[in-house]
Specification:
This protein is α/β, with parallel strands linked by helices and 286 residues long. A seven-stranded mixed β-sheet has the order 3-2-1-4-6-11-8, sandwiched between helices. A two-stranded antiparallel sheet has the order 5-7. A two-stranded antiparallel ribbon has the order 9-10. The protein has helices at 20-31, 36-46, 63-69, 82-92, 143-150, 174-184, 202-210, 229-237, 243-248, 251-262; strands at 53-57, 74-79, 107-110, 124-133, 136-137, 154-165, 193-195, 213-221, 224-226, 272-274, 277-284. Strand 2, helix 4 and strand 3 form a beta-alpha-beta unit. Helix 6 (174-184) runs antiparallel to helix 10.
Length: 286
């Protein structure tokens, strides 16, 4: 799937607070699609199809689930962001009720991965984590307990896919993420948040700590393309990577500094384009 520049969006009043629903819609309409090439590459490699029973952690507003369902996979998504889940239900479910799993429809659950247990049904044979790690300090620590809760729901010998940012020299967005670090340091708790460059073995370290067996990896180009500067700022802030910076200063200040960091990537026609590379690791459950 080729990423496209997102359409123009109505410019918001920078002085007004952004409610969670608006930010979730910015994620769904602007930012989420930037990772579509990553989803597609994983699905191609694993030959996702009608025999796939996929459990997706951090499913967000459901694009990865939608793409898997289009390949006839049976999909279940778990997330703690209720606003994003509400948008996923709009996309995927005509009658959004978890019980509809018996009809082969997607299942969308709020909370811990353990909520996705299906004692009466066949186990999952694919577990995906499409929220990339490796862009903020400690972001892999929160992933470990989620995986420990989810892996027992997957059949032995099944695939588990972890994803992360590629080398900073190949990710133009890295310079923009440093804004979040600089502005958010005053309120950031020790060992959490803050941009840091991705390390080569980030994904392998997570896999080994959870007892997974790595057996393959790949890199995928995922350029971030935006129709204009306003869309770029809104899309990036919807990632939640700038939340500490907003708390430390205010949204207007963060938006201003993010726009300044994006300036080198603005093209003559007003669009914003940043090449990035993401990495995925395919593991098997013991």
């Amino acid at each position: 799937m080729t990423p496209t520049l997102v359409r123009h969006h109505r410019q918001a009043d920078a002085s007004a607070p952004v409610d969670p629903g608006t930010r979730a819609r910015d994620w769904a309409e602007i930012q989420e699609r930037m990772l579509a090439p990553l989803y597609e590459a994983v699905y191609e490699r694993l030959e996702i199809g009608a025999g796939t029973r996929m459990l997706s952690l951090g499913c967000g507003s459901g694009l990865a689930l939608l793409m898997a369902a289009a390949r006839a996979a049976h999909v279940t998504g778990v997330d703690t962001d209720r606003e994003r889940l509400a948008l996923a239900r709009e996309r995927l479910l005509p009658d959004p009720q978890p019980e509809r799993a018996r009809d082969g429809l997607p299942v969308l659950l709020d909370g811990d991965p353990s909520a996705a247990a299906q004692p009466e049904g066949p186990p999952y044979n694919l577990l995906t984590v499409f929220t990339p790690i490796g862009c903020s300090a400690g972001d892999s620590e929160g992933l470990k307990p989620e995986l420990e809760s989810a892996v027992p729901l997957v059949a032995r010998g099944s695939s588990v896919v972890l994803t992360g940012w590629g080398p900073p020299e190949r990710c133009a967005t890295a310079a923009v993420l440093r804004v979040a670090t600089r502005l958010g340091d005053e309120v950031r708790a020790p060992r959490t948040g803050g941009w840091r460059p991705a390390r080569r073995d980030d994904l392998e370290e997570v896999a080994f700590r959870v007892g997974l067996n790595p057996n393959g990896s790949g890199r995928v180009a995922c350029p971030f393309g935006y129709a204009d500067m306003d869309s770029a700022v809104r899309g990036l802030l919807s990632t939640r990577l700038f939340d500490a910076a907003v708390r430390a200063t205010d949204r207007s200040q963060v938006e201003k500094e993010v726009a300044e960091a994006l300036h080198p990537h603005r093209r003559r026609d007003g669009t914003v384009w940043m090449p990035n590379v993401f990495r995925y690791l395919v593991c098997t459950t013991p």
